[in-house]
């Protein structure tokens, strides 16, 4: 494994789930949802703006946007559904969803 692949792997399987778990520990309020939505839109906008000049920064910002979007959807479900069992499942599925970009990167490496 090269250093860049190892870094992407660590971000996908360690950084993303840890960041998402931290974000899910916040109270599920409208302010938190609005803040996460702002992070998603802002990081994607900046990623598109710096795409040609700094592709690695752009990719990192898209990753932050993805993890924030996963946490935002998790918070939306946590606000609507009650019960400790369903809350646990929402948390687990949300954290697992943060690893999905890795599979896209791995597939792209296999094809190219």
UniProtKB/TrEMBL annotation:
Transmembrane annotation, as ranges: 6-24, 31-50, 56-78, 90-111
Alphabetized UniProt keyword annotations: Membrane, Transmembrane, Transmembrane helix
The organism's place on the tree of life at top rank: Bacteria
Protein name: Uncharacterized protein
Source organism: Sagittula marina
């Amino acid at each position: 494994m090269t250093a860049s692949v190892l870094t992407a792997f660590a971000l996908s399987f360690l950084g993303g789930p840890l960041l998402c778990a931290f974000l899910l520990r916040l109270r599920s309020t409208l302010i938190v949802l609005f803040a996460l939505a702002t992070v998603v839109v802002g990081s994607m906008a900046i990623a598109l703006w710096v795409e040609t000049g700094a592709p690695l920064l752009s990719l990192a910002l898209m990753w932050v946007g993805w993890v924030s979007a996963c946490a935002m959807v998790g918070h939306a479900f946590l606000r609507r559904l009650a019960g400790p069992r369903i809350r646990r499942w929402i948390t687990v599925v949300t954290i697992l969803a943060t690893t999905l970009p890795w599979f896209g990167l791995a597939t792209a490496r296999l094809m190219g």
